[in-house]
Write a structure and sequence with these properties.
- Helix content is 82%, strand content 0%.
- The protein contains eight helices and no strands.
- Helix 6 packs across helix 7.
- By secondary structure, it is mostly helical.
- Keywords: Membrane, Transmembrane, Transmembrane helix.
- This is Membrane protein.
- The chain crosses the membrane at residues 27-46, 53-71, 77-97, 127-146, 152-174.
């Protein structure tokens, strides 16, 4: 049951922008804020001790959704993608400072014995991800503050995911080509 709840809450959080769009357009006022708040609370309760870094964005999300419900301010729901991007930026940036870089950590899951020349490359890829989080966070904040709900949903529910997918896939293709040359 725990695994099922983890999967369902993860999918709901990935679909957060679409849920907000549908909820604000088709549900009674405040309903989507309450539903999303409950999902975030469930997700927080399911967190394992090892993933402490995800606690802060969950708590902020709970605050935003609960505050949105209490204050009757649906616009607060639009700032959760900003929180996620800021959190990811902080994690990736900190890994550059503290080491090993976040992308190196991911790479070592598949290949524990990385060659020394890969470390610098993986730091650059981590830096590239930081740039994407800055871009995504900035556009998420702009769309939340200055655009329509439809535009916010399009960017945060589709375009941001496409950009992340392009970076992930493009880097993987480049790395596959680069590693074959070395």
């Amino acid at each position: 049951m725990r695994v099922l709840l983890q999967v369902l809450t993860a999918l709901a959080l990935i679909a957060y922008p679409v849920a907000v769009y549908l909820g604000l357009n088709y549900l009674p006022a405040g309903t989507i804020a309450l539903v999303l708040c409950l999902l975030l609370v469930v997700r927080l309760m399911l967190q394992k001790q090892k993933v402490k870094t995800l606690v802060l964005p969950l708590l902020v999300g709970i605050g935003l959704t609960a505050g949105s419900f209490v204050a009757k301010r649906s616009d607060w729901l639009l700032y959760y993608p900003v929180v996620i991007n800021l959190t990811m930026l902080a994690l990736f940036s900190y890994s550059l400072y503290q080491g090993p870089s976040m992308i190196e950590r991911f790479a070592r899951l598949k290949e524990p014995d990385l060659p020394d020349e890969a470390i610098g490359y993986l730091k650059k890829v981590t830096l590239l991800w930081c740039g994407l989080f800055i871009l995504n966070g900035t556009v998420a904040a702009y769309t939340a503050a200055f655009t329509s709900l439809a535009t916010w949903t399009l960017y945060n529910g589709l375009i941001a995911y496409v950009l992340m997918g392009l970076l992930l896939g493009g880097e993987w293709l480049y790395r596959s080509f680069w590693l074959k040359k070395t």
